[in-house]
């Protein structure tokens, strides 16, 4: 038997630590007011598998058995419930970003305002530029849960760590779930700053060359591995 055949027949082993981390951060996004009810979703990639929150299930009732696991093609391999309806979005990002191992989708107030009023947020504050990217884009609109939404989201995300979904909400990504969560907090703070600054007018934007240097510094040396 060749190695590839043996590997394909190996039995999947559920990782409870990953499931518990997803539940922990599901509680965090609720406590921070980043989403309401059963909206939003969180996933973690582990090898060829994606652990993801179930569709339409209250976060405060989550236990490891309710975390769904799918393979890279989206077929369920473990879990009592169906995966989030936004699974295509998660698969699209994981397929095209080898550096990403966690995704958080939320519906924060200011990020959603950005998603319905702006095309992007320019580089206005240093922490946002470093953690999220130089220009933070709003994707083209598509119906929730569709492949079109997933493709539009990735096109606008590129190699940033956040993207605003048109008329919808926010998606952040990270090397791990904590980095994705911090990106969510920073993205919402940045969206609030930008919306409030627009009310005042005369928004000051960082020079492009400085924004590029700040982003490179974070990616190469500042972030904790």
Overview of this protein structure:
This protein is of the alpha+beta class. The chain is 44% helix and 16% strand. The chain is built from 8 helices and 9 strands. The strands form 2 sheets. Strands 4-3-2-1-5-9-8 form a 7-stranded antiparallel sheet, with helices on both faces. Helix 4 crosses helix 7. It is globular, with a radius of gyration of 18 Å. Mean pLDDT is 93; it is low at 1-9.
Topology (SSEs and partners):
Elements: H1 3-9, H2 16-31, E1 41-46, E2 49-52, E3 68-71, E4 76-78, H3 87-96, E5 102-106, H4 109-117, E6 120-121, H5 126-131, E7 136-137, H6 147-157, E8 162-165, E9 169-174, H7 177-200, H8 208-222
Antiparallel strand pairs: 1-2, 1-5, 2-3, 3-4, 5-9, 6-7, 8-9
Helix pairs in contact: 3-6, 4-7
Give the oligomer, counting copies of the same chain as homo and different chains as hetero. Answer: single chain
Helix/strand class = alpha+beta
The number of helical segments is 8
- Spatial separation of the terminal alpha carbons: 38 Å
Query: Would you count the extended β strands for me?
Result: 9
Element-level helix/strand string: HHEEEEHEHEHEHEEHH
> Strands of the biggest beta sheet: in what spatial order?
4-3-2-1-5-9-8
Strand residue content: 15-25%
How is this structure best summarized?
With 225 residues, the protein is α+β, with helices and mostly antiparallel strands. 44% of the residues lie in helices and 16% in strands.
């Amino acid at each position: 038997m060749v190695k590839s055949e043996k590997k394909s027949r190996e039995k999947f082993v559920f990782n409870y630590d990953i499931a518990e981390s997803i539940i922990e951060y599901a509680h965090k996004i609720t406590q921070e007011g980043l989403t309401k009810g059963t909206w939003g979703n969180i996933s973690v990639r582990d090898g060829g598998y994606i652990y993801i929150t179930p569709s339409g299930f209250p976060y405060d009732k989550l236990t490891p058995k309710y975390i769904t696991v799918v393979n890279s093609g989206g077929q369920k391999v473990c879990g009592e419930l169906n995966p989030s309806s936004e699974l295509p979005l998660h698969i699209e990002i994981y397929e095209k970003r080898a550096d990403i191992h966690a995704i958080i989708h939320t519906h924060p107030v200011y990020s959603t305002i950005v998603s319905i009023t702006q095309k992007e947020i320019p580089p206005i504050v240093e922490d946002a530029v470093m953690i999220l990217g130089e220009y933070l884009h709003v994707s083209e609109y598509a119906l929730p849960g569709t492949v079109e939404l997933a493709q539009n989201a990735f096109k606008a995300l590129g190699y940033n760590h956040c993207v605003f979904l048109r008329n919808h909400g926010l998606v952040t990504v990270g090397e791990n779930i904590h980095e994705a969560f911090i990106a969510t907090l920073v993205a919402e703070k940045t969206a609030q700053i930008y919306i409030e600054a627009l009310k005042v007018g005369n928004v000051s934007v960082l020079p492009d060359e400085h924004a590029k240097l700040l982003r490179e510094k974070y990616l190469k040396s500042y972030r904790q591995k």
